[in-house]
Design goal:
α1 packs across α2. The chain is of the alpha/beta class and 246 residues long. It has two domains: 70 residues, no CATH class; 113 residues, Dna Topoisomerase Vi A Subunit, Chain: A, domain 2 (3-Layer(aba) Sandwich). β7, α5 and β8 form a beta-alpha-beta unit. The N and C termini lie far apart (116 Å). The protein has a five-stranded antiparallel beta sheet with strand order 1-2-3-4-5. A five-stranded mixed beta sheet has the order 6-8-7-9-10. It holds the Pfam family Toprim_2. This is Toprim domain-containing protein.
């Protein structure tokens, strides 16, 4: 290396000439004073992994009386629930809980109990083929959550129903549209709120032939709320009996 004096050498040789000493220790200290040695940056520590919401899952047929009673209070008979749902026991933060499970088409679960509403990964729609299927002519029904789907089955009282799509979240609409475009007509049983109306309009824009069924259960927010109201009214004694009881 040429340092301008016509003599070669290393950086140490240059420093010895600059500092006028042959003592290597003094030379190194001088170099460090002018050119501080930087220590390699430490790799950032990885944040502690967040424990999964569901540390362990156990799935079995729906039998728990607490869960069946919860469904009954929401108007869903056990005969319908047993055919559509499962029982899920799950551990989170070291404690065990249980709930009603409803599978989506990718194997994930929507989980409900009287105090909890959640889901396991992967999130997706549930496509239930009851009728002719997406042959371009058949009708499909759309529900936001599985409680509304179960409510519809309850209201039908065992009569045949078309194919159904349960969104399990309005955020799953893109995946649902791919399925719904295979049907000739779509009936939307979504919530009577802004999200429900916007979702219905998007389905109409993408699929064309769409009927908004939510107007039939106004002023109730959703189909399950309508079902509960209807069952409560049916249990009330008629006006004539009330008058005669006095």
């Amino acid at each position: 290396m040429d340092f301008g004096e016509g003599t070669g050498g290393s950086i140490i040789d240059l420093a010895q000439r600059l500092y006028g000493t042959r003592d290597i220790s003094s030379v190194l200290k001088g170099i460090e004073g002018h050119f501080p040695v930087s220590t390699p940056a430490q790799a950032p520590r990885k944040a502690a992994a967040t424990p999964p919401a569901f540390e362990e899952l156990r799935v079995s047929p729906l039998r728990n009386t607490v869960l069946l009673d919860y469904l009954a209070k929401r108007g869903i008979p056990s005969g319908i629930a047993l055919g559509e749902c499962v029982e899920v026991h799950y551990r989170t933060r070291g404690k065990w809980y249980f709930g009603i499970g409803f599978r989506n088409r990718k194997g994930g679960l929507e989980i409900r109990n009287p105090y909890f509403k959640g889901s396991t990964s992967p999130k997706d729609i549930t496509h239930l083929r009851h009728g002719a299927g997406g042959n371009g002519k058949a009708t499909a029904l759309v529900f936001e959550g599985f409680m509304d789907y179960l409510s519809y089955l309850t209201l039908k009282q065992g009569k045949p129903v078309p194919d159904c799509v349960v969104l399990n979240s309005v955020g799953n609409l893109p995946g649902a549209l791919d399925v719904l475009k295979g049907y000739g007509h779509v009936c939307c049983f979504l919530d009577n709120d802004d999200a429900g109306r916007k979702t219905t309009e998007e389905i109409r824009r993408q699929c064309g032939s769409v009927t908004d069924k939510a107007v039939h259960y106004l002023p109730h927010k959703d189909l399950n709320e309508f079902l509960q109201h209807r069952l409560k009214k049916a249990e009330e004694p008629c006006a004539e009996l009330k008058q005669g009881s006095g």
